[in-house]
């Protein structure tokens, strides 16, 4: 190896003779050192380790510090106890629980260097100081990183003493997982005090890494200090090696800084963690399209399994036991209260009506639905096929409020419809009837609606009971990414009963390819915020009337997030997932929505705005039990000029505000429901007010 200022021809001549040539001596020395390192590693006997656990399910996207510490702790890497504070009071309570003094840090995946922005307060000694620290941290983060997503404040006990290190791992594109140990804090950069090993690393190699550091004497009781728990540090290095191997290609890097080694016998633990994850490779386009096209059919099967009865009060279980997949169909089931946070079987549920639902099996012939006198009360029965197309309606808008009977038949039936009945022709044998009846939250009105619900009935045309059994194919609905094998099994039956209107895309040949596509599509449909197409943060969630046609992506997104959506002539769903500036809505911020005088929603029935948590599309528990606000909300306050302002935030804004509570520190979205919308909404000429972020 040479370091020389020879010209290009001389360098090539040396390299042709097998000699490396560098113009910079420092680089030549570094290369020589690296060659020595890899030669030493190659000469070592292969490390024999116990089996590495199955791959860690790292999710795509950034991790905040608390999430990173949680996933490391679950793998056996020691970390400090923590509390996630979503409000000032929560921070005080968490600090008391952990015990003063505590450290408090801004919690955000978008802010790596927290101290640089004033996002860290140390040695917080009492409740007043904890409250002040929370306010200071949130204010500093809002000024220094206004676009960052803030998840709250992390509270942790102050850890004193010990030797600070940095422990981590990074996936090298050529070498694979590389484990790193170095001096803690900024010393790793100032002193270059670091040691590396290729994973896997055993306990002996971990001790060698510790001994190679310039700060190694500190572990042995330097100048009379108590020796550090070196074995605990070595165990953590081995566990970090196993973590990096288990995480596989999803891991970009993980860094614990500081990682404190306490006095001998007291262990070691991570005080901070940064976890970076690679984006998974995309599934092939054909596999993605197959999932996007068929996802609604699978989600309808999930929904049917979730809200059909296993047991009939007279006939008993539909199957041979409570665990059977058999369910009772061709009967109405009713909700007796307005939906709240404890209701998890339906995503993006409305908070305005009681539900009177039925699943129909038309394979044995037509059915007759009996509807009582409804008067002027808003009601609707929406008919959805197995592909989620809302192709037919009965209700206040279409068939009126008088007592009536509906004749529903499948695609294989031919005959005459009985006189005086409304005919509803289904495109397949599986039909979901979604009934909605307007109800106020007071007990008296709920009792009146219960009496109406009890008079809905389903019979055969000859008047005999229609009750029937069906294999729902699944035991429960679930909301996550389905198993590829189960997905194919369910679709095989659903497709035979509900043929597609057009040929399906080609299925992937490998089950793993399908599983990858399912994971990609299900995650993207749930997580991707929709841009503001109507301005001010608002977008039209659904523009369907009777069929989605060939808009398979919208159909899939609706099935994933808002299954059971009706057409816009009956009800429009205007969504807001971002504010007027295009930033995702978050409970870490405050917003106001103001309708000017005389410029509120124009509807033939009623309107409401409902708030949902973004992560699961469900209603959020809050102090006042309010999940929606609209023209029927009791005690609604109007502005002095007659306008209507709605405050949307996590903290109570005070008694003179129309408050719609948001989840503290969490993402959320809004749904404006317009029942029997006017032409201004249908044709897109209505001016929706902006969602303005407050300072």
Description:
By secondary structure, the protein is of the alpha+beta class. The protein has four domains: 2-43; 65-277, 2-Layer Sandwich (D-amino Acid Aminotransferase, Chain A, domain 1); 309-471, Immunoglobulin-like (Sandwich); 528-694, Sandwich (Jelly Rolls), CATH 2.60.120.600. The chain is built from 15 helices and 34 strands. The strands form nine sheets. Strands 7, 8, 9, 10, 11 and 12 form a six-stranded antiparallel β-sheet that branches. Helix 4 (88-98) packs across helix 5, helix 10 crosses helix 12 and helix 10 crosses helix 13.
CATH superfamily of the largest domain: ATP-grasp fold, B domain
Beta-strand percentage range? 25-35%
- The CATH architecture name of the largest domain reads 2-Layer Sandwich
- Poorly predicted runs are none
| CATH topology value of the largest domain | D-amino Acid Aminotransferase, Chain A, domain 1
Essential attributes:
alpha+beta; D-amino Acid Aminotransferase, Chain A, domain 1; Immunoglobulin-like; about 25% strand
């Amino acid at each position: 190896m040479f370091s020389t200022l020879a010209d290009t021809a001389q360098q090539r001549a040396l390299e042709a003779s097998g000699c490396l040539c560098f113009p910079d001596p420092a680089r030549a020395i570094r290369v020589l050192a690296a060659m020595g390192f890899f030669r030493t590693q190659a000469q070592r006997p292969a490390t024999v380790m116990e089996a590495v656990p199955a791959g860690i399910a790292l999710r795509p996207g950034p991790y905040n510090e608390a999430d990173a510490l949680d996933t490391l702790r679950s793998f056996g890497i020691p970390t400090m106890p923590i509390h996630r504070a979503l409000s000032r009071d929560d921070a005080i309570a968490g600090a008391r629980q952990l015990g003063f003094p505590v450290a408090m840090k801004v919690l955000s995946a978008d802010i790596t260097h927290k101290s640089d922005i004033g996002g860290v307060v140390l040695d917080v000694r009492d409740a007043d100081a904890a409250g002040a620290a929370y306010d200071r941290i949130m204010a500093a983060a809002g000024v220094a990183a206004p676009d960052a997503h803030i998840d709250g404040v992390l509270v942790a006990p102050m850890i004193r003493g010990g030797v600070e290190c940095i422990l981590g791992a990074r996936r090298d594109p050529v070498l694979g997982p590389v484990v790193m140990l170095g001096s803690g804090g900024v010393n790793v950069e100032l002193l270059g005090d670091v040691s590396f090993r290729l994973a896997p690393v055993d306990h002996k190699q971990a001790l060698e890494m510790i001994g190679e550091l310039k700060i190694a004497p500190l572990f042995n009781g330097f100048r009379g200090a108590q020796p550090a728990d070196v074995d605990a540090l070595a165990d953590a290095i081995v566990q970090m090696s196993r973590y990096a191997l288990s995480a596989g290609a999803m891991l970009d890097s993980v860094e614990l800084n500081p990682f404190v080694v306490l006095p001998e016998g007291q262990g070691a633990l991570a005080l901070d963690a940064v976890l970076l994850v690679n984006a998974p490779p995309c599934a092939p386009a054909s596999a993605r399209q197959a999932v996007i096209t068929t996802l609604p059919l699978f989600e309808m099967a999930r929904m049917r399994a979730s809200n059909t009865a296993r047991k009939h009060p007279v006939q008993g279980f539909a199957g041979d036991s409570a665990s059977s997949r058999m369910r009772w169909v061709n009967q109405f089931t009713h909700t007796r209260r307005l939906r709240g946070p404890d209701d998890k079987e339906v995503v993006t549920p409305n908070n305005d009506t009681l539900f009177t639902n039925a699943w129909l099996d038309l394979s044995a012939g037509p059915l007759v639905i009996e509807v009582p006198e409804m008067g002027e009360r808003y009601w609707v029965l929406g008919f959805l096929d197995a592909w989620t197309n809302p192709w037919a309606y009965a209700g206040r808008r279409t068939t009126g409020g008088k007592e009536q009977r509906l004749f529903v038949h499948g695609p294989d039936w031919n005959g005459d419809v009985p006189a005086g009945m409304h005919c509803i022709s289904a495109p397949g044998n599986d039909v979901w009837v979604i009934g909605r009846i307007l109800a106020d939250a007071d007990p008296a009105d709920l009792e009146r609606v219960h009496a109406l619900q009890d008079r809905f009935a389903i019979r055969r045309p000859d008047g005999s009971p229609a009750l029937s059994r069906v294999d729902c194919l699944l035991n429960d609905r679930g909301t996550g990414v389905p198993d590829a094998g189960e997905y194919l099994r369910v679709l095989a039956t659903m497709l035979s009963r509900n043929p597609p209107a057009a040929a399906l895309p080609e299925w992937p040949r490998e089950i793993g390819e399908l599983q990858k596509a399912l994971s990609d599509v299900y995650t993207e449909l749930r997580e991707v915020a929709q841009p503001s197409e109507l301005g001010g943060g608002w977008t039209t969630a659904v523009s369907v009337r009777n069929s989605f046609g060939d808009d398979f992506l919208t159909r899939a997104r609706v099935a994933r997030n808002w299954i059971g959506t009706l057409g816009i002539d009956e009800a429009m769903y205007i969504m807001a997932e971002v504010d007027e500036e295009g930033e995702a809505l978050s409970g870490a911020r405050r917003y106001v929505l103001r309708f000017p005088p005389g410029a509120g929603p124009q509807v033939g029935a009623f309107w409401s705005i409902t708030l949902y948590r973004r992560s699961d599309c469900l209603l959020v528990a809050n102090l006042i039990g309010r999940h929606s606000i609209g023209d029927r909300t009791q005690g609604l306050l109007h502005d002095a000029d007659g306008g209507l302002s709605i405050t949307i935030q996590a903290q109570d804004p005070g008694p003179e505000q129309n408050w719609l509570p948001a989840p503290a520190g969490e993402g959320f979205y809004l749904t404006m429901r317009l029942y029997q919308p006017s032409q201004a909404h249908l044709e897109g000429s209505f001016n929706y007010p902006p969602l303005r972020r407050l300072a």
